[in-house]
Amino acid sequence: MSTLQVENLIGPTSGSNANKVIIPSGQTLDASNGFVAPAGSVIQSVLWKMTPVEKSTSSTWAVTTFPTIANTYVVETYNFTKKYSNSKVHATVSGHVDHLNASGSPSIVALIEKSNYPTSETFMGAAYRHVRVHQDEPLTYAFSGEDAVAGINKQYSICCHSHADVMRFGRPASGTNASHVFTILLQEIAQ
Question: Do 141 and 109 touch, CB atoms closer than 8 A?
C-alpha cells in the first residue's frame, strides 16, 4: 500500500464538474479518523428504548408548574457521549404512558439534561396531558427538544409528574406489552 500526501485537493475550475473532487463509483473515501462534518449534519444517532416501569407520582401537579429535576420524578437516565463538545443534541421523545386513578389529572413528561446537577440542568422539552382515562388506556406523550450546551458526557433523564397516583411507561396496568414502547431518539448535530 502506498501513501499520497497532499495539503489540498481541488477540482477543476470550469466545466460540468467545476470545484468538485469526485470519488468514482465503487470507491469509498474513508475519513473516519479526521472528518469534519458540515454544520447541520448528523454525527451520531442513538435510539434509547426505556425499560417498562411503573412510577409513583404522589402529590399534586399543576399545569402552570415548570418541570425541573427537583419537582419531578426521574423515571430513567441515559448516558450519552458526544463526539464533539460544541455540537448540539436533538431529541425526539414518543411513547405510551398508562395512568392510575386519573380523573382530569394534570400530567407531564419532560426530558432534562442533568450532567451538572444540582449546579445546573438543561430543560429540553415536555409534553402535558390533562388525563381523564386510566387503567389499560395508555396515552401518547410526544415532543422534541435541543441541548446546545457544550460538553462531551451528557446525562439525559426522562422525568414525570401527575396528579394521578401512578404513571406507567411502556407498559399497561396489566403488565408488559411489546406495543406499548417509550423511546427517545438522540441525534448529535454538527455546529
Answer: yes
pLDDT tens readout for residues 95-105: 999 988 887 88
Which own/partner pairs from 118-124 qualify as long-range (CB within 8 Å, at least 24 positions apart)? 118/69, 118/70, 121/68, 121/69, 122/147, 122/149, 123/66, 123/67, 123/68, 124/91, 124/156
Owner of C-alpha cell 472528518? 35
For residue 58, pLDDT beyond 80: no
Domain interval for residue 160 = 42-189
pLDDT at 183 over 90: yes
15 domain-assigned: no
Of the candidates 114, 99, 116, the one whose C-alpha atom is nearest the C-alpha of residue 61 is: 99
* pLDDT at position 118 over 90: no
24 in any annotated domain: no
Distance from C-alpha of 98 to C-alpha of 183, rounded to nearest angstrom: 15
- CATH number, domain with residue 93: 2.60.120.1340
